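Inverse folding, one chain.
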């Protein structure tokens, strides 16, 4: 089978973020299954493209979006490979529109809400009200051109069916995949060595928060949770950067137990997961949007760690409370603190949860298992 894999995100240029990692793992998994993959990703780094983007500064917000969208779609359309392929698999509505006129069957994976998520970046309410209908119409057009939709959580499936009247039998929920080779358990001796190299003592209990510092990731609640933990042995690493950095630093107020390490590239982050005793994913609901199947959560589980997550979105579809992870209410620092305390004071339970987390990821979320599910959808669509 030959598959065209396309997206407006280019994982060979940007190597962080769940969608970028997802694309690389899907390529790898499909190729291991003997599928020929033709990748088609938008290259936003070419000088000509960037020059055109500079011109967009002189337009209104709506006009700027129209021009950028046209630019992206035209770029992808011009670069559709001449190789004959059996099926096209887009990973956002814009790349789906770029391949709309190709005769092959088409699959669309939705990693989020195109219209809702894009207007988050627009501060002016009147401009938001102008841009949103434009983006929603584009989203609807993308749906019309696909033969099957994959969503990364149940809420996104419900949205596709209710908002666009898309046939339920043509929508499959498929949570993200993880690289179970790179993200794996290590021995206590190896973990202690990593801790010492990072400047921690043997008695330190390290909680890793691998999150960009943006509102939806709720990192400020992780910092607030530390105020409810009296132990000086509990240490927190915040691996990420973003517009909320100043606000979160102020909230931390010089707490020496909290260490900000900035953005860590995805090819180096695995060592932080292995070093940590627990992971914390304190995401929150913003503008009606909830996190889907967090890649960071799955990577922590793959490393056999106890993962503490907000009970929202795709995370509560994957985590079984006190079995393969812990769930807490969103925006509740005291609950987060209690969950950390539970793991700190009961290491046997933590080990059992970590072992089950690894097992459940291996069964359901390894990149090969994920690629097999996608391959079966291709076969179904092709009849």
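Residues assigned per position:
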């Amino acid at each position: 089978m030959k598959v065209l894999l396309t997206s407006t995100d280019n994982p060979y240029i940007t190597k962080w973020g769940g969608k970028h990692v997802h694309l690389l793992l899907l390529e790898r998994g499909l190729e291991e299954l003997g599928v020929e993959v033709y990748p088609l990703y938008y290259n936003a780094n070419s000088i000509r493209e960037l020059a055109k983007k500079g011109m967009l500064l002189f337009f209104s917000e709506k006009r700027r979006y129209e021009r950028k969208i046209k630019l992206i779609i035209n770029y992808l359309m011009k670069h559709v490979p001449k190789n004959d392929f059996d099926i096209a698999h887009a990973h956002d509505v814009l790349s789906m529109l770029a391949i709309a006129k190709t005769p092959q069957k088409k699959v669309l994976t939705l990693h989020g809400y195109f219209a809702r998520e894009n207007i988050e970046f627009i501060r002016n309410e009147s401009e938001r009200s102008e841009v949103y209908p434009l983006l929603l119409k584009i989203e609807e057009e993308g749906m019309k051109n696909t033969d099957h939709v994959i969503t990364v959580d149940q809420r996104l499936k419900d949205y596709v069916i209710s908002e666009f009247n898309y046939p339920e039998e043509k929508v499959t929920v498929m949570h993200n995949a993880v690289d179970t080779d790179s993200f794996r358990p290590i021995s206590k001796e190896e973990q202690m060595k990593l801790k010492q190299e990072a400047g921690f003592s043997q008695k330190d209990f390290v909680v890793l928060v691998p999150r960009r510092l943006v509102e939806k990731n709720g990192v400020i609640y992780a910092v607030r949770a530390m105020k409810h933990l009296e132990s000086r042995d509990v240490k927190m690493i915040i691996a990420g950067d973003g517009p909320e950095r100043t606000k979160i630093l102020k909230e931390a107020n010089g707490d020496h137990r909290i260490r900000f390490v900035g953005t860590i590239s995805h090819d180096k982050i695995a060592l932080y997961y292995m070093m940590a005793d627990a992971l914390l994913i304190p995401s929150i609901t913003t503008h009606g949007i909830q996190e889907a199947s967090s890649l960071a959560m799955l990577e922590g589980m793959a490393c056999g760690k106890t993962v503490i997550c907000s009970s929202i979105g795709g995370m509560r579809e994957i985590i079984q409370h006190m079995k393969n992870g812990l769930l807490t209410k969103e925006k509740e620092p005291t609950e987060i603190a209690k969950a950390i305390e539970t793991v700190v004071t009961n290491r046997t339970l933590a080990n059992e949860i970590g072992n089950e987390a690894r097992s459940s990821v291996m069964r359901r979320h390894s990149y090969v298992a994920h690629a097999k599910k996608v391959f079966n959808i291709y076969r179904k669509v092709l009849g």
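The first strand starts at residue 2 and ends at 7. The chain has two domains: 2-177+366-382, 188-364.
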